[in-house]
Amino acid sequence: MLALSLSPATASTKSGVYATDSSWRRQFGLTKGTFATSGSDGNQCIQSSSFSANFTATRQRQVAVRAGWLFKGGEKGLDARAEQSESANEDILMFFFQLDLATRVQYALNLEQYDIAQQLRNKLTEVEAEVIRQQEAKRGSSSKSEAQDKAISIIRLRADLQKAVEREDYALASKLRDEISNLEADSLAASAKALVYENAQYAFRLGQKVKHKVFGYRAVVCGMDPVCCESNSWMEAAQIQKLARGSNQPFYQVLVDVYEDPNLLVTYVSEENLVAPDQPDKDRFDHPYISILFYGMDSAGDFIPIKQLREKYNRPRHELPINPEDQKDGDNA
Q: Has this prediction a pTM greater than 0.70?
């Protein structure tokens, strides 16, 4: 198992840089030397993997942050920062890392730096294997295997139980019954988790603009889980137990518009606390991750997720319905 330690990125309206700790890179054995390639002039060039965003336009507008709710709390006495998720941010950063490594592999191949390309490809394979392992554990694929393993163990224990009864070893038989009961409960929970992920239904889609019902900020969906996958301490701080549907409902990774607040950035929000706008929201939306995760904005004001993001969550392309008026204008032309 690979130990990952991604530090939450921090945004600075002074520097405009969205920076991350490099410790998680080092744990994969990635150093600057790994990424060195020689240019046509013989000089060595190093590609940086930091992700930055230009907040100049925001600063020029001298935005007055509309985030009184951030410090006063919502109508339920909840601070919006309680829904910030370090694990959600780490998940996004790891996704960036994959994209970055894939780009570097192609860049090295274009420069015919085949040894470097192979090194990068090996690291990419290593990262992808870890990501798949984490996704399987999170989405229940491993739960399905776990349930199958427990079912085999139950069959063996029942055979042992039968032998214990035949020998009139009732103390052992009682112990085996308890073990079987515990395994059956664990197997049922694992099967239920796997089933939830397989049959997940979401009210919102990748790239869709939404609004928080309690805090009112605008956001864009960039990830989703059929149930809350955060830690117990996070759920307690975010008061998930007070939600009408609790933790057993879809939760979404959302990017918060920096115009609303430049420090909130990524939150993990329950489906019941999000709402889609009544009318297409074509207003400007600023966030340092937008240009990496999405191609751009569609005619309805939502963002178009890149192919890799759709594949990560196994989501189909969203096709906008044809507007009869637009079709009529096209026919007349």
A: no
The number of CA neighbours under 13 Å toward the Cβ of 225 is 22
The tens place of each residue's pLDDT in the chain, 333 residues long, gives: 333 333 334 343 333 334 444 444 455 554 434 434 334 443 333 343 444 334 333 333 334 444 444 434 444 567 889 999 888 998 899 999 999 999 999 999 999 999 999 999 999 999 888 887 777 666 654 455 666 677 788 888 888 889 889 888 989 989 999 988 888 887 776 666 666 666 778 999 999 999 999 999 999 999 999 989 888 899 999 999 999 999 989 999 999 999 888 888 899 999 999 999 989 999 999 999 999 999 999 989 999 999 999 998 888 888 877 665 555 555 555
For helices 170-198 and 141-166, angle between their N-to-C axes, nearest 10 degrees? 160
Q: Which of 114, 181, 123 is nearest to 2 (CA)?
A: 123
- Name residues whose C-beta falls within 8 Å of residue 232's C-beta, 6 or more positions apart in sequence: none
Half-sphere exposure of 153 (CA within 13 A, CB side): 17
CB atoms within 10 A of CB 115: 8
Are 187 and 150 spatial neighbours (Cβ–Cβ below 8 Å)?
Answer: yes
For the chain, how many helices (H) and strands (E)? Answer: 11, 12
